[in-house]
Automatic annotation (TrEMBL):
Residues 161-175 have a biased composition (Basic and acidic residues). Residues 128-241 are annotated as: Disordered. This is Tudor domain-containing protein. GO terms for cellular component: nucleus. Gene3D superfamilies: 2.30.30.140. PANTHER family: TUDOR DOMAIN-CONTAINING PROTEIN, ZINC FINGER CCCH-TYPE WITH G PATCH DOMAIN-CONTAINING PROTEIN. PROSITE patterns: TUDOR (PS50304). It comes from Collybia nuda. Keywords: Nucleus. Residues 72-134 form the Tudor domain.
Length: 241
C-alpha cells in the first residue's frame, strides 16, 4: 500500500457518500461506505508504520557512519592491556585469540614478562601515537602477582642449587686431582715410575720399531730364565754297612 491507494480509497468514499445523500436508505451503499472507511484507516496505519521504520533505519545508518570503527585484533598485534593485578594499562602483545566473534577472548603477554593473561575486548586498546614501543622502566613496572612472585622465587632457588652443585663437583674433581698428584710424587720418591706423571704417557710410541703402543716394555725380548737340569738320584754307600 502507498499514498496513491489511500487517495483512491478517499475518492471512492466521497462518491459513495454523495450517492447516499440522494438515497440514504440504500443498504448496499451504506455497507460499501463502512468498508471504505475501514480500508482507509488500515492504509493510514500501514503508511505511518512504514514511515517510522524508514526514519529509524536512516537514524541507525547515520549513527553507524559517525561512530568510531571497531578495532579488530590479530595474533602478534601490539596493544595496551589492562593488568588484573592493579588495574593499570601496560604494553603487551597478543599471542592468540579465542572465544566467539561476539565474545572474543585474547591471550596477551606483557612486555618484559613471560606470563600470559586472558583479557576481554574492552580490556585492550591501541597503543598511543607517541608510544616508543619500549618495555616499561623499573620505576613504573607493574607489581607481580603472588603466583608470579612464587614462580620467580622458585626459579631463583633452582638456579642457585645448580650453581652449588657445579661448584661442589668442581671442588671434588680438584680434590681427586690433588690426591693423585700427591700419590704420584710419593711413588717417584720410592723409585716407582707411574706413566703420565712426568710427561710420559703409556700411549707414547716406543723407540723400538717392533714395540706396540700401550704395551709397557713392548719390543723387548722375553726375560731369560736359567735352565734347570734334571735331578739325578745317586745312591750313596752306607758306611755302616
Amino acid at each position: 500500500m502507498d499514498k496513491t491507494d489511500l487517495e483512491t480509497y478517499q475518492v471512492q468514499l466521497s462518491q459513495v457518500e454523495l450517492a447516499l445523500s440522494s438515497d440514504p436508505t440504500n443498504a448496499e451503499l451504506a455497507s460499501l461506505r463502512s468498508e471504505l472507511k475501514e480500508l482507509i484507516e488500515l492504509t493510514q496505519v500501514a503508511l505511518s508504520q512504514a514511515e517510522a521504520a524508514s526514519s529509524s533505519k536512516a537514524d541507525a545508518n547515520r549513527k553507524s557512519a559517525t561512530a568510531t570503527p571497531i578495532q579488530t585484533w590479530s595474533a602478534g598485534d601490539e596493544c595496551l592491556a589492562k593488568y588484573s593485578g592493579d588495574g593499570g594499562w601496560y604494553p603487551a602483545r597478543i599471542t592468540s585469540l579465542g572465544g566467539s566473534t561476539d565474545n572474543r577472548v585474547y591471550s596477551i603477554m606483557f612486555k618484559g614478562y613471560n606470563t600470559t593473561e586472558l583479557v576481554k575486548a574492552f580490556e585492550i586498546k591501541p597503543l598511543p601515537a607517541n608510544h616508543s614501543g619500549a618495555a616499561p622502566s623499573s620505576t613504573n613496572k607493574r607489581k607481580l602477582s603472588k603466583a608470579e612472585e612464587e614462580e620467580r622465587e622458585k626459579k631463583k632457588k633452582k638456579n642457585e642449587k645448580k650453581v652449588e652443585a657445579k661448584a661442589a663437583k668442581a671442588k671434588e674433581q680438584m680434590h681427586k686431582q690433588a690426591t693423585w698428584q700427591k700419590f704420584a710424587k710419593k711413588s717417584e720418591k720410592k723409585g716407582v715410575h707411574i706413566a703420565g706423571t712426568s710427561g710420559t704417557s703409556i700411549f707414547k710410541t716406543p723407540d723400538n720399531p717392533l714395540g706396540k703402543v700401550g704395551v709397557t716394555g713392548s719390543g723387548k725380548g722375553m726375560t731369560e730364565v736359567a735352565s734347570r737340569g734334571k735331578h739325578k738320584f745317586v745312591p750313596k754307600d752306607d758306611d755302616g754297612a
